[in-house]
Amino acid sequence: MNTRITTPEQSIVYPYLPEGRSILQVSSEHPFMKLAREVAFEHKGSLTHTSGAVLVKDNTVIGTGSIGSGFHRTNGCARQDKHVPTGMAYELCLGCHPSNHSEQVALANAVINGHDPFQAEVYLWGHWWCCVACWSALEIADVRQVYTLENAHVFFEKSHPNNFLGRQEEVGN
Ligand SMILES: [Zn+2]
Ligand SMILES: [Zn+2]
């Protein structure tokens, strides 16, 4: 099994990254990344809004979450309908609101399940960076590392010509 961890090349410029923080990328074969992908598809509203987060502590999953907590599946997405660029106008859609982002849903899920996310790690499938609100929540919870999928900055970036948006089910199989 290939579970290598790679450090993204320095050319990756994140829309937001707190001082002193990094995002590492892991292969699609990594067991926790595989699980994050499963979580993303479990509750997907549409293929352009598919993300999942898995919180891991002491090699044990303590919480999982996907964007919108099912909101998009039943209500659709006003941001998507209006072609809002990534990271903007979250107020238009409750499902896209940062408190419903997969990172924060996973944090809440861990707490509900009686776990302390202190020094946990988070594995994200379906996006390549974390928004200001999610980084803030992760830092408050003292999550120690964020992992995304290898080449997430290509696969999940709307403006990248080689992205997989709309074809996510082909990624990581
Ligand atoms: Zn939405
Ligand atoms: Zn977020």
Main sheet specs:
6 strands, mixed
Strand order of the largest sheet: 1-2-6-5-3-4
Number of domains: 1
CATH class: Alpha Beta
Number of helices: 6
- The tally of beta strands, per DSSP, is 6
For the record, what is the CATH homologous superfamily label? Answer: Cytidine Deaminase, domain 2
Structural class: alpha/beta
Q: Are any ligands bound, and if so which? A: zinc ion
Report mean pLDDT, rounded to a whole number: 87
Q: What is the percent of helical residues?
A: 25-40%
Q: So, CATH architecture?
A: 3-Layer(aba) Sandwich
Shape: globular
Low-pLDDT stretches: none
Order of helices and strands: EEHEEHHHEHEH
Radius of gyration: 15 Å
Question: How big a fraction of the residues is strand?
Answer: 15-25%
CATH topology: Cytidine Deaminase, domain 2
Distance between the termini: 13 Å
Provide an overview of this structure.
The structure is a single chain. This protein is of the alpha/beta class and 173 residues long. The chain has a single domain (5-170), classed as Cytidine Deaminase, domain 2, CATH 3.40.140. 26% of the residues lie in helices and 17% in strands. It has six helices and six strands; from the N terminus they run ββαββαααβαβα. It has a six-stranded mixed β-sheet with strand order 1-2-6-5-3-4, sandwiched between helices. The longest helix is centred in the first third of the chain and has 12 residues, at 31-42. Residues 49, 72, 77, 79, 93, 95-96 line the site of one zinc ion.
